[in-house]
Amino acid sequence: GQCVAVCPTGALTEVNNIPVVWNALDQNEKTVVVQVAPAVRVAIGEEFGLEPGAISTGKMVAALRALGFKYVFDTNFAADLTILEEASEFLHRLKDGENLPILTSCCPAWINFVEGNYPQLLNLPSSCKSPQEMFGAVAKNYFGPKVINVESKDMYVVSVMPCVAKKYECARTELGQEDVLDVDISITTRELAKMIKEAGIDLLNLEDESFDSPLGESTGAADIFGATGGVLEAALRTAYEWVTDKELSDVNFTQVRGLEGIKEASIDIDGTIVNVCIASSLGNARKVMDEVANGNSKYHIIEIMACPGGCVAGGGQPYHHGDYDIVKKRAAGLYNIDGSKELRKSHKNPAIVALYNEFLGEPYSEAAHKYLHTHYFDKSVVYEDACGECTCSKEADA
Ligand code: SF4
User: Coiled-coil regions in this chain (predicted)?
Assistant: First the structure.
């Protein structure tokens, strides 16, 4: 039969989800909620003639409301939530000296890669679901049933992502409760731009609007998730304050920023030196992971993103055609948003504090595990036939 390439970033298997989303918006049985990842707001403007990095949050929110979404929420909310869970998990592991280095788990293409290539190290990725999935879990199991009195099965969660791999992440059946998936469908930044155009909405002339509450509240730490190094920086801001019980006055860990493919730093947290590494692209991930596999790695935390530069350069964004000035401008847009926010540490997000008080208890609690954590699978068998040129496998389409 015909061969189907299974590409780690999903770029080769991109499916058009626009008709599915129109259909969800047209039928009135379910409460249709949308979440938007951080990297989208600094790139979608390019599809309408704005400069890369232009911050289009308010107009994007207005457009989503005009498209018919009942609640327009922010994946950033869940990025803050991810930080509380991941920083807790890291500090548990550091205390026990076990399962180090912790590897970030918010990039599904990277998770697919580690499952396929390093099955002996599946104790290392953080068990935290990605922000996309945490958002869906909270929308369906807290916001629906406990805030607006809608059962989780009657909620429909759409995500707008800079990413093609997020489409298969939301289809992973372990990411949900029983037969209700956390996220129903994911569209890319480019697909959202197409929908706005199809609807005849004049994005540039919309009045700015704000995200709905409470799943629209976020801190600057969440915005920087979209750039390589950002997840790690956000985690450090929270881990530092939790460990030291002191205020971190300068939240800018500039040593972990920038487009370089592999970055490293040593951070002094009250006398404990934490060695951190950030890799973007799967080629760089392999270099770093081979050291981990050989026992030669000195790192305590490693952030890995499959796309060179992180999600701002994701496969679902407006095409950058290899022009990394565009990617830099988008990242700069995210750091500008972070710098302009009053709250820049995830654990200071009042909506997150309220979510723990009302629903989850403590970070890393039993309830948090039930809704916000996951597990991984050995997928190395699928990769046996890989050609060796890249990480994809070829499966016969019988
Ligand atoms: Fe998706 Fe790329 Fe971001 Fe990974 S780095 S989550 S593949 S956009």
Answer: none
